[in-house]
UniProtKB/TrEMBL annotation:
Keywords carried by this UniProt record: Phosphoprotein
Signal peptide: none
Protein name as annotated: Response regulatory domain-containing protein
Domain Response regulatory as annotated: residue spans: 7-121, 125-241
Alphabetical GO biological process terms: phosphorelay signal transduction system
Pfam families the record matches: Response_reg (PF00072)
InterPro entries to which the protein is assigned, alphabetical: Bact_response_regulator, CheY-like_superfamily, Sig_transdc_resp-reg_receiver
Length: 242
């Protein structure tokens, strides 16, 4: 048993995973609060001085990275373990396995994008989800002048809204989007069985490494890859409680 009881916050939109982790910690006599979204986590930090938090990175709405930054504004010395079950490489493999049209690395060759669109010959909208203020409009102009109907959005939530309201034949999806990132957009559409032909634009791990590097600069307590060994979690807690 740990040297002292800790106040622990678990943040995960997967209720089963969050509740199971809470039970594990409670068995060790820790005081546990569960939040199922980034906003709930931030609200919890406003009322409780937690010793440590375990936060999932991939959550709808405010993701774990954004939530971490907000929490650090409230409590600069907050100790937070980031949990993730996804890597960019895993997403790309899954996308290809589920019929994604292809993956294009940055910098993007516009000719490759047009070649992919020519293979599909969409009748509906080509949706571009890209927040780069220069590249997004350039890609939109290129596709429009090539004879396709096109819509440009600059965030993941706008992309999901467009898919729900309009007929989207093809989606060009940057993985590094604000509000809801491209990984979450893609996984949400897969969960809803919206199998839209998708061209993924990614700088691969380098883009997400930048986010992780930012967290390390702010002294994030650690990063845990799912699934993880419960004994590792307990040993980390014992170190904190010692």
């Amino acid at each position: 048993m740990a040297a002292k009881s800790l106040k622990i916050l678990i943040v995960d939109d997967d209720a089963d995973a969050a509740d199971s982790l809470a039970e594990l910690f409670e068995m060790e006599d820790h005081s546990v609060t569960v939040a199922y979204s980034g906003d709930e986590a931030i609200a919890a930090y406003k009322t409780v001085d937690f010793d440590v938090a375990f936060m999932d990175i991939m959550m709808p709405g405010k993701n774990g990275v954004e939530s971490f930054f907000e929490i650090r504004k409230l409590k600069p010395d907050a100790q937070v373990y980031m949990m993730t079950g996804y890597s960019v490489e895993q997403l790309v493999k899954q996308a290809i396995d589920h019929g994604a049209m292809g993956v294009i690395g940055k910098p993007v060759d516009p000719r490759k994008v047009l070649a992919m669109l020519d293979d599909v010959k969409p009748d509906g909208i080509v949706l571009i989800a890209e927040d780069d203020p220069d590249f997004g409009p350039q890609l939109e102009e290129l596709i429009t002048t090539s004879g396709f109907q096109c819509k440009l959005v600059k965030s993941g939530d706008e992309a999901l809204k467009t898919v729900s309201e309009q007929t989207v034949d093809v989606m060009i999806l940057d993985l590094n989007l604000p509000v809801i990132d491209g990984i979450e957009v893609y996984t949400q559409l897969q969960k809803k069985e919206r199998n839209i032909p998708t061209i993924i634009i990614t700088g691969h791990a380098a883009e997400h490494a930048e986010s992780l590097a930012s967290m390390r600069d702010m002294e994030v307590t650690g990063i845990l890859n799912k699934p993880f060994d419960p004994s590792i979690l307990l040993s980390r807690l014992e170190e904190l409680a010692a």
